[in-house]
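REQUEST
  id: r-88c1
  op: predict_structure
  target: Galactose oxidase
  payload:
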Amino acid sequence: MSRNSLIYLLLFILLQFLLVEINCEVKFPISQRYFHTTTYIDNKLYILGGRYTSDDTIKTLGREFFYLDFSTGFNTNSLTWNTVNNFVPQHHGAATVVGGAQNDTLFLYGGITNYERMSMVYSFNPKKSWMIPTLEGNDGSEVNRKAFLTGIADNGKMYLWGGTEMITRYYVNDMLILDMIDLTWSTGSLINAPIPRNEYGATLLPNHKIIYMGGSNGQNLGIGLDKVYMYDTINDSWATQVTSGNIPSRRFGFSSNLALDGQRLIIFGGYNVPSKEATYVLDLTNFNWYVPNINGTIPSSRAYHRADVINKYLVVTFGSGYNNSKEDDVLLLDISNNDQYVWTGYYAISDSAPSPIDSKKSRNYKLIGIIGASVVGSMVLIAGTYYLHRWNRNRRTKIAVHPPSGKLDNQTGQKVVLTMVNDNGNNDQQTKQ
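RESPONSE
  id: r-88c1
  status: 200
  body:
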């Protein structure tokens, strides 16, 4: 490799380093959205798609792909979003889960788009980027696109029940099953399956059963929660369970998540659900509903949001029904104590939450480091460019003063014109016989 090429390579690597550091750390505005997807992989909560609440038209579908880093503490009113290259067309109402041979790949299915060539399934591995997997089995070409459903992953398979079929726009109650390792389609049993619906709650239980509840089948009030439905992923069978206690109101567009002890189910929000009725718990030992004790500032109820259990928190992201100029886009409910849940604005990876001052200091130190690295890198870049310019100029001068040996002029007797660059940058010419 020549000296010139080596300098260019070093400058290019430095520039790439600076761009990566700046893009990953500097904040940028994120629009409030709903019907997006969230997927948690390697301490990062990836968020994709959705519809913007500011302009409720098909032309405002989200295409951004970004994540929130959960490896360090943060304050929900001062979030740093990190962008990721995206390959998926703009869409909303899709479903995502984590799967693959190493259980480290995001699988996205379905959704509504105004981009007619959007594939049925996409996969994203943080180390390998986006792919469109080739799917086979059970005549996968006839698998219809669905939206407004919840994907559940178990034993390497993605379970896709119900939702709205995009061709007919009908509510459906079929079970599509995608093997995320063999990349094959199959279908589950319809015997004793619940009535068709979308925008329901769904959660995988420790016994490999998926619990489904609520949702919408065209009724404005939604479907009641006096019954829940269990799909056994091992035996491919359905069962119905009657609930009791303080049964929540009918609802759809809510979230449901398993509590840390695996014996409770937490639901939050829903369309037209008052804030005081937003949070309920279902005790899975007796299927009894109750309202949990909650401390902290109660947020507005949200619909069409997403919720994930990360460490000791129920993490609620975006949705509709709240004003993001008054409330944060991300909510944190500390569920570590079943007797007392707490709404908080601080995410901590240890038992003690960081204070606002500590969080601010950490962000300031990080910002100072980024600015310092950028300044030093820019100085090195400028110095390298200047050195390269001088080196090329001196090289041209030497070539002009000492041209290559002239075998041709000795043979032809032609005059050789030597061009010398003087101190003023002008050209002096001498003629040699």
